[in-house]
Write a structure and sequence with these properties.
heterodimer; A: 13 helices; globular; disordered N terminus; B: mainly alpha; MetI-like fold
């Protein structure tokens, strides 16, 4: 390979390349794929495989016992129920907020628009701390949700806020208002227009956002640590349960609960890609 | 009427979930004036936590940037066996709980595991020290750069690079003088996102660091440890610092986003 030339002129004076005129040398591509595979393997794949491997050390019964031990089972149940609630609330509120951001105009809308992403940018532990300040024992609003399941729910709602808003918003922006006008001119009431015209086009985006929020909520750790108080059988979510088991050196139990979370996450991802494919086919 | 009530519901939700809590922490930080907040942030432990945070975040961002550019080019420009698998794997870290990330790394690189033991005998300590924290941070921020630049790479196409090759440029020259300038805003966007994620990571780092005060304590771990040891002023001040970083990130990505697809 020629030495890199700093002069643009030197490049133009070179004869038109005959070799490699269309494609990058495939040697480089092969090398790139190899390096990417090694990188992903060392950091992501081998470690995740180790989790599944460790969880299966005691056979199926060992795995099942670890997952259904009273404390882990309670944590998993709380996590699943809370995540379903979070998904539903996000589906409604996220769509509503996206609607207001696209169709409404009011002073300060730009600021609100920017604030939506704050939960993604704010470290989760800080999210937990700020919520505990407002909804904790010293609450200026006199609402004390510390160490309660409601507190866990609020923390999960905080960190999942942007998902539905950010998936629905672009679709809503693209939506042609003429369809709605046509429906209205034919005598459809507002709700009918929404249900028959708008909702069908928004649904794939709404469901993708909801799936993302659900997956995030299932795996959430940092924001729930402070506000939940991590009380076993009451406010301990699955991720906190795993953390506790790691700290008490029960890595097999931790791996078993982790495997459940991994499977749920994978199912959510698969569903998500199915929804997206369905959406793009309809679009 | 319906419009106004929808607006009120949306804004009230955001007010109570987002604005009031974050606003309150700013108020708490400066409740007793600026002095105590500055004292809390310049204590030796806090300064050390800042330093550890940077020592972890910067290598992680650099690694993910190199990986991200490489993989985005592979995914967008080339068709090869396993391309779809690679594409799906890049998104996998998003779905994995931070605690599981930590556990996964411990089960491979911990001192009592085969690979970790082998490394330990050669004097390389991964878990409970900076390298493990860097690995954890790389894991959680892995997809950000790839997903930021892939759409732009797709949009700019390959014609300009082909032109450069026809003029005799080497692959490296074409990459450096054509591709990189074309994706620079998207790349900056992805790097800012990665940096924010890396500075703010808590769960994965909490597991692999062992949270050794003044050794492997990052800023987020500092917040939690101070708060649980009833040193609220320090926890508030560090949270405020992290919140400022988060807001700066938002401002930056808002500047960078509309410039996507610079042609």
């Amino acid at each position: 390979m020629a030495a890199p030339s700093e002069e643009a002129g030197a490049v133009t004076s070179a004869p038109p390349a005959v070799s490699g005129g269309g494609r990058r040398p495939s040697l480089g591509v092969g090398l790139g794929i190899g390096l990417a595979t090694i990188y992903l393997s060392l950091i992501v794949l081998i470690p995740l495989a180790a989790v599944v491997w460790r969880s299966s050390e005691g056979g199926w019964s060992g795995f099942w016992d670890a997952v259904t031990s009273p404390e882990s089972a309670a944590a998993l149940k709380l996590t699943i129920v809370a995540s379903i609630l979070v998904a539903i609330i996000n589906l409604v509120m996220g769509t509503l907020i996206a609607w207001v951001l696209v169709r409404d105009s009011f002073p300060g809308k730009k600021v609100v628009e920017m604030l939506i992403d704050l939960p993604f940018a704010l470290p989760t532990i800080v999210a937990g701390l700020v919520l505990l300040e407002l909804y904790g024992a010293n609450s200026p609003l006199h609402v004390n949700l510390a160490f309660s399941r409601a507190g866990v729910l609020v923390a999960l709602l905080f960190v999942t806020l942007p998902f539905v808003v950010r998936t629905v918003q672009p679709v809503l922006l693209e939506l042609d208002p003429q369809m709605e006008e046509a429906a209205a001119s034919l005598g459809a009431r507002r709700f009918t227009t929404f249900r028959r015209i708008i909702l069908p086009s928004l649904l794939p985006a709404m469901l993708s956002g909801t799936a993302l929020a659900f997956a995030r909520s299932m795996s959430e750790f940092g924001s729930t640590v402070l506000i939940s108080g991590n009380i076993p059988f009451h406010t301990e979510v699955a991720a906190v349960n795993i953390f506790g088991q790691i700290e008490s050196d029960n890595t097999t139990g931790a791996a078993a609960v982790s495997t459940v979370l991994l499977v749920v996450a994978l199912v959510a991802l698969v569903l998500l890609s199915l929804v997206q494919r369905w959406g793009s086919r309809r679009g | 009427m319906a419009r106004v009530s929808l607006r009120l519901v949306a804004l009230a939700y955001l007010l109570f979930l987002l604005v009031l809590p974050v606003g309150l922490i700013c108020f708490r930080t400066f409740e007793h004036g600026v002095g105590p907040a500055i004292d809390a942030l310049t204590s030796p432990s806090a300064l050390h936590a800042f330093q550890v945070t940077l020592e972890v975040a910067i290598p992680a961002v650099l690694a993910n940037t190199v990986f991200g550019v490489g993989v985005a080019i592979l995914l967008v420009r080339h068709r090869f066996l396993g391309r779809r698998v690679l594409d799906a794997l890049v998104d996998l870290p998003v779905a994995v709980s931070p605690v599981v990330v930590g556990l996964a790394l411990i089960l491979v690189y911990g001192k009592f595991e085969p690979i970790g033991k082998w490394l330990d005998q050669r004097g390389i300590e991964i878990i409970f020290s900076i390298p493990g924290m860097v690995l954890a941070t790389i894991f959680v921020a892995l997809p950000l750069v790839v997903r930021a630049i892939a759409p732009v790479l797709e949009e700019i196409g390959i014609e300009q690079e082909q032109a450069a090759w026809t003029l005799g440029a080497t692959s490296w020259q074409a990459f450096r003088r054509v591709t990189i300038p074309a994706i620079r805003w998207a790349l900056a966007y992805g790097m800012v996102l990665s940096l924010a994620r890396s500075l703010g990571e808590y769960g994965a780092v909490a597991v692999v660091s062992g949270n050794l005060v003044d050794q492997t304590q990052t800023l987020t771990l500092f917040v939690q440890e101070r708060y649980q040891n009833f040193d609220q002023p320090a926890a508030y001040a560090a949270s405020f610092a992290l919140a400022v970083i988060a807001v700066c990130t938002l401002l930056l990505i808002n500047l960078l986003r509309p410039k996507e697809g610079t042609r």
